[in-house]
Amino acid sequence: MPAMSLEVENLTSGYGPTKVLEDVSFSAPSGCRLAVLGRNGMGKTTLLATLAGQTKRYGGRIRLGEADLTDAPSATRAHHGLGYVPQARCIFPTLTVEENLFVGLKRRPKSALEEAYAMFPRLKERRKNLGNQLSGGEQQMLSTARTILGQPSVLLLDEPLEGLAPVICEELMAAFAELAKAGDMSILLVEQRIQSALDFADRVIILERGRLAWSGTPAELSADHDTVERLLGVGGLH
Ligand SMILES: Nc1ncnc2c1ncn2[C@@H]1O[C@H](COP(=O)(O)OP(=O)(O)O)[C@@H](O)[C@H]1O
Ligand SMILES: [Mg+2]
């Protein structure tokens, strides 16, 4: 995929009659690593789901490069380069690791699977295992790898570290950092593990009750204890 900037303007969305996200604007230039932070229930998942076309949109625009995806169905967004790795991981439990990866290949040759295995060697070792035999960390690797095989220009990761042991978190974050380094792909990372997100990101936005409450760099946020405590509810980052 060519380098593309994601532009989000005045986005308002929700579920049925309920508005959750209100008037959110930001941009994610090609190659950026954007942490999306906020306490539970503030709209982080709704933001990613809205970008992926899975909520009701009330207003605003979503552009990716030259394409206006505001009203596009989910499949069109994926085709244009939005890769969504949902919080639920969505592994097919009765398919093998390799069969799960085939789903992400679409029309690419089977040899492209090696890209996924290079990123997560553990998946190669487990390629004949069924989805339901995987640990949480392996499921996250599989879910991420399957999306990467679609060659997204923007990768949307929703709490990839949730429920995982620290050593697996480090392995995943290292793989995400490699991905970010490797090309023009931008990564939007929603995470509750704030320090991991800040170590990874080059910019940060914070959502508060569905609105954009703060944006800046990880260094600015780390130095701003009031904002950290007010919007993230933690007294200091370490
Ligand atoms: N499917 C849904 N239908 C109705 N309301 C929802 C749905 N999913 C989430 N919400 C509500 O939207 C708000 C934001 O949720 P969410 O985006 O999941 O927050 P976060 O990911 O930041 O924890 C919450 O008040 C939540 O109850
Ligand atoms: Mg969430």
Describe this structure in words.
With 238 residues, this protein is of the alpha/beta class. The protein has a domain at 6-87 and 156-232: Rossmann fold, CATH 3.40.50. The protein is built from ten helices and ten strands. It has helices at 44-51, 74-80, 97-105, 113-119, 121-125, 136-148, 166-182, 194-200, 218-223, 225-232; strands spanning 6-15, 18-28, 33-37, 56-64, 67-68, 82-85, 154-158, 186-190, 203-208, 211-216. Strands 6-7-8-3-9-10 form a six-stranded mixed β-sheet, sandwiched between helices. A four-stranded antiparallel β-sheet has the order 2-1-4-5, with helices on one face. Helix 7 links the parallel strand 7 and strand 8. The longest helix is centred in the last third of the chain and has 17 residues, at 166-182. The chain is globular and about 50 Å long. The termini are far apart. Magnesium ion binds at residues 44-45, 87.
